[in-house]
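Quick note —
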Amino acid sequence: MIAIWWVIVVMTLGVWWTVWRLVRYPGGWAYAFHEEHREARKSLEDARGVVRELRRSARREKWQALAEVKRAEWAYRRRVRQVESELERLRTPHRGERIGQLGRITLYEHTALISDDEVPLAGLHARFELSRSTHVSYVYLTQPDGRERMERYDGKEFPEETVRRFSVQIQNAAVAVNRLQERRAGKIRAFEAELREARKATEPMEAAREQLEKTRARHNADVKLPQARAALDDARNVWQDLTGRRPL
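Predicted structure written out below.
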């Protein structure tokens, strides 16, 4: 069964090659296969080969020049995106790790979450107050613009010492964020300068685009391919005069 299958494959390939040969060298069996027309076939095939090679070479050079443009553009965009991403991270820090919670206030590294309202710790001032008469503790959060938030803690549920420690924890976290903000501001300035430089660094792209245009112009002005096409037309004419059929 396998032997039969291989016979079928070989026969199919043989038929395909024969048809291809007849199409390649039209005019009949003798012109496509006989030895007496071998030189005519060779002349036609040589002319085709020259055109084919010149086209292939031109495509390869243009593709390489275009690929260099794409690489330069990709490198440019990649660098800009990286700097922009780092700037975005520095400008909009996340909450950070959870530090603690007391009542409605949940303290994170960079923010204090009061119920669903998020208050950045940068520039925040926390203070503790105690109402002796009612055994109620208060935590005041003063934001940089002067606005205040107040949270009330009943002494029966929240002992004074616990509330006092939590307010100190908030203040210390705010101080740590302020110091971090100072360092972050320096990094932001550095990355802003780097972003300006990255956006101005278009020389590799411009050079690659210029080379692409030069490559295209050189091939458009090159006379080798038109001459090869003319030679191929002459070879086709010779074949047509010989066989009465014009090859592709």
